[in-house]
Design a protein that fits this description.
The protein is mainly α and 118 residues long. Helices cover 75% and strands 0% of the residues.
Length: 118
């Protein structure tokens, strides 16, 4: 959906169209976070609080951004899609990988210290 938003910007779509895509992205992201958080609680993931804080931080930024867009205080720009892409990549490669490792093994380890077996 971030790519869809980016492509719509490159096509010069109106801010109302971009806002609609961003709102849909926000809804799907919040639902995804809710599902992840339920799974982490169910499995007693020790990194739950840290992981949830990351989710809450992004949700707060997106809510604030949508408010600013509604008030015409800001526009949806390529910098926004770059931020979202970087945040998601960093989150998936960091926090999500730690969670996946715990769910697979029952042990939380820093992703960076895991040896690659091959």
């Amino acid at each position: 959906m971030v790519n869809q938003l980016h492509d719509a910007m490159l096509r010069g779509e109106d801010q109302s169209v971009l806002k609609g895509i961003l709102e849909t992205l926000a809804i799907h992201t919040i639902e995804h976070f809710r599902t992840e958080e339920t799974m982490m609680r169910r499995h007693h993931y020790p990194g739950y609080e840290r992981h949830k804080q990351a989710h809450d931080g992004l949700k707060a930024k997106v809510v604030l951004l949508l408010r600013k867009i509604d008030c015409s205080e800001t526009a949806i720009t390529v910098e926004l899609t770059s931020f979202l892409t970087e945040w998601l990549v960093h989150h998936i490669k960091g926090e999500d990988q730690k969670m996946i490792q715990f769910l697979r093994t029952g042990v939380e380890r820093p992703v960076e210290s895991q040896a690659v077996v091959g």
